[in-house]
Amino acid sequence: MHTDLVAALDIGGTKIAGALVDGHGSILVRAQRATPARKDGDTVMRAVEEVLGDLMASPLWGRVTALGIGSAGPVDASTGTVSPVNVPGWRGYPLVERARAVVGGLPVRLIGDGVAIAAAEHWQGAARGHDNALCMVVSTGVGGGLILGGHLHPGPTGNAGHIGHISVDLEGDPCPCGSRGCVERIASGPNIARRALADGWRPGPDGDTSAAAVAAAVRAGDPVALASFERAARALAAGIAATATLVEIDIAVIGGGVGKAGDVLFSPLRKALADYATLSFVRRLTVVPALTGTDAGLVGAAAAVLKARMDATAGV
Fold first, then answer.
1. Domain 5-116+294-314 and domain 130-290 have a common topology
2. How would CATH label the architecture of 130-290?
3. pLDDT confidence band for 2 (50 / 70 / 90)
4. How large is the average pLDDT for residues 68-90?
5. N or C: which end of the chain has fewer CB within 10 A?
6. Could you tell me which of 256, 254, 197 has the C-alpha nearest to residue 225?
7. Which residues are CB-neighbours of 170 under 8 A, at least 6 positions away?
8. b/e string for 264-294 if b means 16 or more Cβ within 10 A?
9. In angstroms, how far is CA 44 from the centroid of its own chain?
10. What are phi and psi of 271, to 5 degrees?
């Protein structure tokens, strides 16, 4: 069995990545296409088919036993459909059925991209050895996934742990999701930059208005940039503390572009967490940066397949 491989897809609004992954989490073959996000659904699917075609052309394809897909959401694993916010041509799109047809009927498992990150971090990264963890992506959006009782907990539709849409400000800004004061509306990269600009932060001569530019301004001592990051950190802390209070996680792992801001994010986040995570059973909660990097989506999609197979074998 150790010679078996898993095919993995990581589908986002910018790129569709594919890989053949072995039982140790090593990527043996890669393929990638840009996501034609503004085109119709079948055009997007053609890019997925091209990525799978590249993988199937590998001499290693004969060892592939299943396909794992981590997709931008919302996803619905119970119906095998996806409706990524940033890919308007896919609404209730039958991705699992279409992908299964391409790969000759192999088993296909679909999970949300936040759940994929959690699977990767628990298998290979910062949540390794932790039975109860929240793993988050903080970038253009804010997503997440849960490890509970030592197992990936995707929930019935594959979206459990979607911390970005916990409301942490009852009077907060309306969120595109329809709610108000969501973690994502405060702590995502574009919203950190939006808040800083609204409060008077001005970008440098290069005109860069990304969260990374705001983080650089924090390091240079800009108080407005600092205030925006501190507000984002408080929103994340409130969401993480709420999650820990609900399901007793002992570690929160943060990846994504904003997570790369380092101490600019983690210092105010740890300070804020002490204010929100106050009950005895959540005080030991730690917050750490993710370790799996840009391959997390692919490794996690493969991990979800491999872990499900191990659980089935063990009768879990």
1. yes
2. 2-Layer Sandwich (3.30)
3. low
4. 94
5. N
6. 197
7. 180, 181
8. bbbebbbebbeebbeeeebeebebbebebee
9. 20
10. -65, -45
User: What residue segments make up the domains of the chain, in order of their start?
Assistant: 5-116+294-314, 130-290
Tokens 């929100």 map to which residue? 276
Question: Cα–Cα distances in Å, from 106 out to 2, 6, 52, 99?
Answer: 18, 10, 12, 9
- First-to-last alpha carbon distance for the chain, in angstroms, is 19
How many angstroms separate the CA atoms of 61 and 64, rounded? 5
What are the tokens at 211? 């969260």
- Amino acid, res. 243: T
Q: Which two tokens stand for residue 42?
A: 């079948």
**Residue range 160-197, pLDDT digits in tens:** 999 999 999 999 999 988 999 999 999 999 999 999 99
Strand partners, 144: 136
How many Cβ atoms are within 10 Å of 206's Cβ, its own excluded?
A: 7
- Would the pLDDT of 99 be above 60? yes
Specify the CATH number of the domain 5-116+294-314.
Answer: 3.30.420.40
283-312 pLDDT per residue, tens: 899 999 999 988 999 999 999 999 878 777
Q: How far is CA 100 from CA 68, 103, 238, in A?
A: 11, 5, 40
How far is it, in rounded angstroms, from Cα 286 to Cα 133? 10
- The per-residue pLDDT for 1 is 43
* pTM of the full structure: 0.91
Q: What is the mean pLDDT of the chain?
A: 94
